[in-house]
Amino acid sequence: MARVKRGVTSHAKHKKTLDAAKGFYGRRKNTIRAAKAAVDRSMQYATRDRKAKKRVFRALWIQRLNGAVREFGITYSRFIDGLTKAGVIIDRKVLSELAISQPEAFKALVEKAKSALPQSA
């Protein structure tokens, strides 16, 4: 039986790792041992941060909405409560975009939310 030479496979694996480490600093970009550890860690960060990105954007939309509705004399939480009571189902991303690009439409939504809230508060 002929012996198996594994150089091609190992080289291909190493090349794949080093290509993923392109742009890293120092030995992390060209030494397989350091590059493998750096690439593995970077993949962990990428996985974690794909989840975190969603939270960050939701927080941004909420901050934008809070700033936009305060111009109409209402807080974010009261605005969302009013929209819920009025039966308006629009997510925060779309509401934030409306507040920026179509202020007239957003003002109509704020008025609708205000009218759905009890006047005593």
Automatic annotation (TrEMBL):
Tell me which PROSITE patterns the record gives. RIBOSOMAL_L20
Q: Name one Pfam family in it.
A: Ribosomal_L20
What keywords tag this UniProt record?
A: Ribonucleoprotein, Ribosomal protein, RNA-binding, rRNA-binding
Keyword Ribosomal protein appears in the UniProt entry: yes
Give the InterPro entries listed for this entry: Ribosomal_bL20 (IPR005813), RIBOSOMAL_L20_CS (IPR049946), Ribosomal_protein_bL20_C (IPR035566)
Instruction: Give the Gene3D superfamilies listed for this entry.
Output: 6.10.160.10, Ribosomal protein L20
This protein's source sits in the domain of life called Bacteria
- GO biological-process terms attached to the record: ribosomal large subunit assembly; translation
Alphabetized CDD domains for the sequence: Ribosomal_L20 (cd07026)
What's in the GO CC field?
ribonucleoprotein complex; ribosome
Q: Name one GO molecular function term.
A: rRNA binding
Query: What family is this protein classified in?
Result: Belongs to the bacterial ribosomal protein bL20 family.
Main role? Binds directly to 23S ribosomal RNA and is necessary for the in vitro assembly process of the 50S ribosomal subunit. It is not involved in the protein synthesizing functions of that subunit.
Q: What is this protein called?
A: Large ribosomal subunit protein bL20
Query: What species is given as this protein's source?
Result: Methylosinus trichosporium (strain ATCC 35070 / NCIMB 11131 / UNIQEM 75 / OB3b)
Question: What does the record give as the organism's lineage?
Answer: Bacteria, Pseudomonadati, Pseudomonadota, Alphaproteobacteria, Hyphomicrobiales
The protein's gene is named rplT
